Amino acid sequence: MQATTRLYLHDSSRFNFEATVVAAQIRDGVHWIALDQSAFYPEGGGQPADRGTLNGLPVTDVQAHEDVVWHALGAAGNDQSLAVDTHIHGAVDPIRRLDHMQQHCGQHILSAAFQALCGAATVGFHLGERLVTIDLDMPVLQRNQVQAVEDLANQIVWGNLSVTVRILARDELNGLALRKTPTIAGPVRVVSIDDFDHSACGGTHPAYTGTVGIIAVLRWTRQRSGVRVSFACGARAVHELRRLNQVASEAAEQLSVGLDELPVATKRLLVAQQTLQRQLATAEERLLDDEAERLYAAGEPVGTNRVVQVCFADLSVERLRALAQAIAARPGGIALLGSSGARANLVVACAVESGYEADQLLAHGLTRLAGRGGGNARLAQGGSPQSEHLEAALSTIRQQIQA
Q1: pLDDT tens across 221-277, in order?
Q2: Which of 34, 158, 182, 325 has a CA positioned 20 to 30 A from the CA of residue 369?
């Protein structure tokens, strides 16, 4: 099949073109056509595909297979309006293309700045719908490093340096300081940002760095053995910074502080919350101990032991377990506790001197419930969907103790 001449390789700002259909296929209900030449960028290299129209029909996807670029027209192109040999007019969405040019060129600049100031190579790149990410081969990244890199990157942008594209033979690469050695065989497309950066790249880029507008680093996180940096360029950066400012302004308004006071106010609020959580935990422990004492006092004496049998309505397993342990911490305490929510939960706890083992007692109750569970001599728990038999299961265990 005839290879597609990729017009964007030499002119990323070309949005309109004429071409001829050389092949047409229907795959999974989608109409795909190949052209003798195309300005549409196919998905690849971390950059999404272009969108636009062919003879007025919307292009929903663009993919490359070997040397052929295929354009998806979806259900709208299932007629014969774009059959083989049809002359077409193609129009690439200029707003989406400009956005991708800003982000991709910004990535080259930012990666080169990280390489120059931190010695960190870019090992991954992804151009998403909102943000762009690069993965750096460095274990940790400090805020002062990010600020220095961001400053250098924007100096390159605002310097409005020329961005040139060349197709070079392998021997012409000698002496050219490529940021990364290309792995492909044959001629290499090199994108150069003045003398600041030279990269082998098949993506779309503007003619001057000034088109990028601005580069804003938004966050960075550890990623496997490296660092993932999220950023945005041009209009995306403006929209993202506007969104972050709105979020911060709303938070500051709710706390009745100025934006500059927000970090201190947030820390103060966090400290207060932690204090309240500790106080709440202490109060809950006291309530739990009081409840355990009340239930223990009302429990049935069996020899030197005291058996507490209670079935609660929809009490959490964690609460059941804590209450059972508090009862078993008292002399001869044996707790047989259940919760009859959507699922039956059963907890058994035995004091050391009681002479009983919780896991063995639990087994008798689970037999009645047809449930599953386990534990040890001091604490055991189980469950079953048969909530209606929970009271009977607790009584079965109690009978074993009385026997």
Answers
A1: 998 889 999 999 999 999 999 999 999 999 999 999 999 999 999 999 999 999 999
A2: 325
Q: What is the DSSP string of 251-270?
A: HHHHTT--GGGHHHHHHHHH
Write the Ramachandran bin of 45: left for phi over 0, alpha for psi from -120 to 50, otherwise beta: left
Q: In what order do the strands lie in the sheet with 163-168?
A: 163-168, 188-193, 197-200
3-state secondary structure of 75: helix
Tell the residue number behind the tokens 């209900």, with chain if given: 29
- Eight-state DSSP code of residue 391: H
Report yes or no: 33 and 71 within 8 Å, Cβ to Cβ: yes
Give the global pTM. Answer: 0.75
Q: Which two tokens stand for residue 268?
A: 């103060």
pLDDT tens for 281-339 read 999 999 999 999 999 999 999 999 999 999 998 888 999 999 999 999 999 999 999 99
Distance CA 191, CA 197 (A): 8
